[in-house]
Amino acid sequence: MQNYAPHHLARLDQLKGKPLASFPRRAVAFVLDFFAAFLLFLVILIYGAKLLAYLGVIHPDTSLNLKFDFTNWYSLIFLVLYFGLFTYWGNGKTPGKWLMKIRVVSLTHEHISLWHAIERALGYGASVLELGFGFLQYFIHPNKQTVHDRIAETIVIKEGKA
Predict the structure, then answer these.
(1) How far apart are CA 82 and CA 80, in angstroms?
(2) pTM, entire model
(3) Is the N end or the C end of the chain the one with fewer CB atoms within 10 Å?
């Protein structure tokens, strides 16, 4: 492990020997989560519109033009909430990470905090910048950390035997 402040050394000792998650596992988990986020967005959109029509807030025949893409603020907020809240509630596991048997762990705390989870989700934006080079830093960092891992002081480990 890289050099860290003395108060982090106890946590690093706990993580010593844990196998780091491979890039393919992390990539597949990310794609699965992105697809799950899209499906959840659609479900919320469809049933949310039905609820608003039922409550009389909008006319039942109103056409809502909402898109799930990176140009709309609500899509970005939804993605940050999806990745942040699932990481927090799942103690480092989103549905995709759970399927791939990997987990995000904090280098500074025993359990990943809500702030770390949201910070890491926001960090995905930094990893996407410059044509995704932030994700590719996995291959050059000694602890296999991407940009969003370093922002939130996390690593991704493989679950199971050390």
Answers:
(1) 5
(2) 0.83
(3) C
CA dihedral 28, 31, 37, 43 (to 10 degrees): -100
The burial of 47, by beta-carbon neighbours within 10 Å (0-12 exposed, 13-18 middle, 19 or more buried), is given as exposed
Residues whose CB falls within 8 Å of the CB of residue 125, separated by 6 or more in sequence, listed in order? 76
pLDDT at residue 2, rounded to an integer: 52
Per-residue pLDDT of 11-65, as tens digits, reads: 566 677 789 999 999 999 999 999 999 999 989 888 888 888 888 888 777 776 7
- Cα separation, 115 vs 84, in Å, equals 8
Q: What are phi and psi of 147, to 5 degrees?
A: -60, -45
CA distances from 148 to 55, 80, 125, 132 (A): 41, 12, 8, 11
**What is the distance between the alpha carbons of residues 32 and 27, in angstroms, rounded to a whole number?**
9
Tokens of 16: 């010593």
* Alpha helices, H only, 90-152: 95-99, 114-136, 147-152
Q: Which residue matches tokens 């050059």?
A: 140
Element counts in the chain: helices (H) and strands (E): 6, 2
